[in-house]
Task: inverse folding
């Protein structure tokens, strides 16, 4: 499980191994759990990212959120801006728009965030491999060789 605040951790920065490529090539199964560290906008963003997942565009949306983040709780993220971000990624279906506008995944977002609190996750990134949290050290998270060894150990 890769536990991350939707907008707070870009894959190439937080995970120096090409995790995105590993996910796309099905070498790892990554489960992202949104966290709500920065208030209401986190919940809106997490819901929209889940909506993007319905369109098979979660990773692209995740990265776009990170690349376009503003100051915390600046008011940048709302249904209109999240839909516009999706449009920039060619996510334009009525299903996506309705999902973002209705807050379809808000209950899921809340439940997952509560689960993170129960597991004492208090920073991003936090990584669990086969249900066990790896120690949050500079080497474990930011050294490619060490992180690769942890992810791909048998």
Result:
């Amino acid at each position: 499980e890769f536990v991350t605040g939707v907008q707070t951790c870009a894959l190439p920065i937080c995970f120096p191994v090409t995790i995105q490529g590993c996910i796309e090539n099905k070498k790892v199964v990554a489960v992202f759990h949104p966290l709500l560290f920065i208030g209401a906008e986190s919940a809106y963003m997490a819901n929209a990212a889940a909506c993007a997942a319905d369109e098979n565009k979660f990773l692209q949306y995740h990265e776009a959120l990170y690349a376009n983040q503003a100051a915390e709780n600046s008011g940048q993220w709302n249904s209109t801006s999240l839909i516009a971000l999706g449009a920039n990624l060619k996510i334009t279906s009525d299903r996506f728009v309705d999902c973002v506008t209705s807050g379809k995944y808000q209950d899921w977002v809340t439940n997952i965030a509560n689960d993170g609190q129960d597991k004492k996750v208090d920073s991003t990134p936090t990584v669990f491999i086969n249900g066990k949290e790896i120690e949050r050290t500079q080497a474990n998270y930011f050294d490619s060789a060490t992180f690769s060894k942890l992810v791909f150990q048998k």
About this structure: Confidence is low (pLDDT under 50) at residues 1-13. The first strand starts at residue 2 and ends at 3.
